[in-house]
Amino acid sequence: MFELLVAKLLSRPAAQSCRLLKNRFYNRDIVSIKDLDRYDFEGLFEATDRISSLPLSKKQKIGEGRVLSMLFYEPSTRTIFSFEAAMLSIGGSSIGFADPHSVSVEKGESLADTVKILEGYSDIIILRHPSDGAARFAAEVASKPVINAGSGTEEHPTQAMLDLYTVMKEKGKIDGLNIAIVGDLKYGRTVYSLLYALARFEPQVFLVSPPQLRIREEALYDLENRMKISQHRSMEEVISAADVLYMTRIQRERFPDPQEYEKVRGIYVVDRSTLDKAKDSLIVMHPLPRAGEIKAEVDSAPQARYFQQAHYGKTLRAALIALILNEDIDFRS
Ligand code: CP
What we know:
Helix content is 38%, strand content 15%. The chain is an alpha/beta fold and 333 residues long. The protein has 2 domains: 7-152 and 313-325, Rossmann fold (3-Layer(aba) Sandwich), CATH 3.40.50.1370; 157-302, Rossmann fold (3-Layer(aba) Sandwich), CATH 3.40.50.1370. The protein has a 5-stranded parallel beta sheet. It has a 4-stranded parallel beta sheet with strand order 3-2-4-5, with helices on both faces. Helix 7 crosses helix 8. Residues 1-18 have low confidence and may be disordered. Phosphoric acid mono(formamide)ester binds next to helix 4. Phosphoric acid mono(formamide)ester (CP) binds next to helix 4.
């Protein structure tokens, strides 16, 4: 049904297409990006475009009286604050914690109990947790929708949504692009969500990493059956062909042995000389925070999109919250 509605919405004249009568995000958990299909992405991107052009008075009504619970068991800057800013932008509010030591988790309260308490105070639960599977578990425990804001080394689905939205906005398409993903492909959870999101489209993906940080075998096997992927050791091998250069941080905190981290620290660095070898139309992305992978001198280059990417995150998350909270939204301004 939603496919039909989105198809209609995308093909109708603009004046008639501003209303999403139904949406597949309503009351839905966002645990894994694998649960979304291409229609979901296209509908979400359409909603993101539309919500950003609504007048403030109308936008503020969408989330009026609604509350987000933010349960962050790991540090965050972009995800936590963009969710909060997104909720404020649609007239709602947020409660929760950015530091589990500041709440009763410190006294030994379980994740299940914390979720059950916070769902009584709010309409959606946003969870970041160091354990794989934590978001799925929380979604099973909770009667309110749960959004995975990063679970262990496993997934970060809303990051992938905003990554794809950035590519769409900046390149106008995803199909047919050469997308190089560089760095820690083993422990970086954004990489897994991004790859499964890209697999709903038709890009060529270059995976660039040292051997010890290659994408996990089971994911590679699965993804190779879904889209065109090649593996590389050096950025030099792919930089001239790339349309998108997606850098990632080496995830120091997830290495079992600090000496292993030292072997790969600083292995890939983008600077102005890297851009000289690339297409003029290349865009450089990064989920951030960076830890030396992109030199500050690149920030003023026309290819730099990583700050814009983070800023798109606020609008996209506002659209996602709006769709989860409201079965019907009138996007007419
Ligand atoms: N990209 C991202 O998840 O950033 P934070 O860890 O700051 O939320």
